[in-house]
Amino acid sequence: MVFMEASDDYVLKVSNLSVKISNQQIIDNVTFKIKRGSSLAIVGPNGAGKTTLFRALLNLVPYRGKIEWGAKVKIGYVPQILSVRDVPISVKEFLSYKNESLQDMKAALASVGLDSEAIIDKSLATLSGGEMRRVLIAWAIVDNPDVLLFDEPTTGVDLDSEEAIYGMLKKLTVKNKITLLLISHDLHIVREYSDYALALNKCVVFFGASKDVMDPVTQKLIYGEPICKEFGEAYV
Fold it and tell me: Is the pTM of this model over 0.90?
């Protein structure tokens, strides 16, 4: 993983990225780039390599190829599964691991639609699924990142809470000029809450405007037999 010049308009460039785990090819020759302030949804069938892509971007798994982040970029990350609710600590204790002030912690909670005064001293174990996901998002944004990576950010919440969380995420990223990368299985969510979509099926099978993911031909590309493609500058 390397860093680009500060003047570069792109926050992330990925070139010929491949990951093999236990001799199994998880993702193969993935190339894309995204401009600062944009939102990119990663879609694809189960086992397509979506979470592995995120882990490679965070330098958590070995990979071949090149990952270039913007200069001095700060990244916030919320994984799909995080069992912190089983740990006997309060919301305040959890957020304090980022070493931010109590004022900043309360501001982060308020920005994700929570009553900071009411929830700050609650135990994580007592929170609902929707509250827990919002607390995790607050944890990701409390130190003012430039980029947010969300792996299925509404796992375990009901449909009404899902729409509310995605709506909140969109407002938050636009207001703070944050680049958003999210993994989602819901193409309606992808179309409504992201600018671009990258479809993985081990390789890149689609990279384009999110509004195009509902097209039947595009869906066949995403969920059919992998047909790896090379994409130029049209959708970056």
Answer: no
